[in-house]
Amino acid sequence: MIRVLKIVVFLVCLVPLGLLAWRFFGVHPTDMSTWGAALGANPVEALEHKTGDWTLRFLLITLAITPLRKLLHVPALIKFRRMFGLFAFFYGCLHFTMYLGVDKFFNAHEIFADIFKRKYITVGFLAFVLLIPLAVTSTTGWIRRLGGKRWQALHRLIYFSAIAGVIHYLWLVKADIREPLEYGAILAVLLAYRAVVWLRPSPAMRSGAITRVREKVAVE
Amino acid sequence: MLIKPTTDIRSSEITPKDVYLNRRNFLAGLGLSTVAAAGLGMKELLLPSAKALATDKIAGIQKSQFSTTEKITPINDVSHYNNYYEFSTEKEEPAKMAKDFRTRPWSITIDGAVPKKQKWDIDAIMKFAAPEERIYRHRCVEGWSIVVPWVGFSLSELIKRAESLGKAKFVQFTSILDMTQMPGQRQRILDWPYTEGLRMDEAMHPLTLLCFGMYGESLPNQDGAPIRLVVPWKYGFKSAKAIVKISFTDHQPSTTWNEANPHDFGFYSNVNPNVDRYHSQAHERRLGEFRPRPTLMFNGYDQVAGLYSGMDLAKNY
């Protein structure tokens, strides 16, 4: 059942890419002069923006898995988290490639200047780089090698990647910050959930405290 | 003697103006625009106010020595990729949302350092000089560019008639404020109404165009109808759209984008590949082209360099 569902979810995650490709190559894929026409007057910009949107969306979906499985009592959701995370990385790669290859035409001088001078590029680059170790260590083998605790600690980098991603969007728009703020609001809720969970003393900690109290009483 | 009323038409029988005007869109939508055009002459006689509500051919357009011979961007791109935040911050939206924008009646108020405040009707202004076609490069601060055959004449023709006083050192342009027609103005994304400004010598430069048409016809609403500015050596946002007021001032006027983000958008905002605030400005993508091309100083309009001699353009950006 889960296996079938995984295949379905995998294919659904590819739909945004499929639609972009469909619109890019259009109804006459063999006629290069028609490429991009369905994406408007500036197809390069459209592809860059849309792949960026989907990177952020998949990051938020990935971050929503833990709260949802707890709140909805569907622990099986965890089986999809890795896939969503890897799709965030996948769309992030496409977004970064669009920027490097198509927008900047691999103009190394301009790209380096951008990354070091322009803070919205710096922070976007950071968001992408932070995802690389997470994608690399996403396999079961790596979880075993690192050990559950260390693996989990490493994968908290996704919080910083998502924050950097939203800031990247916020800083890059000229004046209309409504959409980046929407992403920011969702991210804030997802991170607030974790903050609440951490701040609330866990049952284990509570019992630990009780034991200490008992010991104290016993000593007296 | 019995005098019979000459009209028997009840007011309920008269087609409401908006229905009447929409009829034209309806016909165009059916692909019957030629039919509508054929009927236009008759309609204009009957209802002069309908004139110029959709794009009309402009008669007697002259060629200009300022035109580039570069390939002109297709009109469909220029009219469906618009930064016009008064309607929407999405570039495809203004083409749809500005469809019913009313461009008549329209007048421009002339005030500030002038002998007397005046209000000029758009149709009178358009007769100040013969319309010229100016094929200009147009460079957006976002890094894309287009080549557009604008129609208009030098702004100096209007300034001469305003008889601005000696103390007038700057010109400020104010765009229309009308949130019933422009839903984008209901959002405080920018401080409406949109204002722009030029130094007097920039405003008087022959390249600076008072524009009311493109591609041989009146401006589409989404491109700044009925009248706008085109300053080809500056980033596109300097070329204010739908202008309702021109003020002459002795001090540098406030301009919308500069107020919104003074670090990124300076008062001058000359196209300059060496100064990159908002973006790297070294290259641009001409719409319709895949490979970015190098951006030229003053967008290739070297004849304006003299306006800025002795100025540090890295500081006065």
Brief synopsis:
Chain A is mainly α. Chain A is built from ten helices and no strands.
Describe this structure as you would to a colleague.
The complex is a heterodimer of chains A (220) and B (317). With 220 residues, chain A is mostly helical. Helix content of chain A is 80%, strand content 0%. Chain A has one domain (2-219). Chain A contains ten helices and no strands. Chain B is 18% helix and 20% strand. Chain B has eight helices and twelve strands. Chain B has helices spanning 17-29, 33-46, 75-78, 93-97, 122-125, 156-162, 200-204, 256-260; strands at 107-112, 118-121, 132-139, 144-154, 170-175, 195-199, 209-214, 217-218, 228-230, 243-249, 283-286, 293-294. In chain B, strands 3, 4, 7, 8, 9, 11 and 12 form a seven-stranded mixed sheet that branches. The longest helix of chain B is centred in the N-terminal third of the chain and has 14 residues, at 33-46. The radius of gyration of chain B is 21 Å and the shape is globular. Chain A binds chain B through residues 40-42, 44-45, 102-105, 107, 110, 113-114, 117-118, 174-176, 178, and chain B through 76-77, 80-81, 85, 89, 91-92, 142, 144, 187, 189-190, 257, 260-261, 264, 276, 278-280, 282-283, 285, 287-288, 290-292.
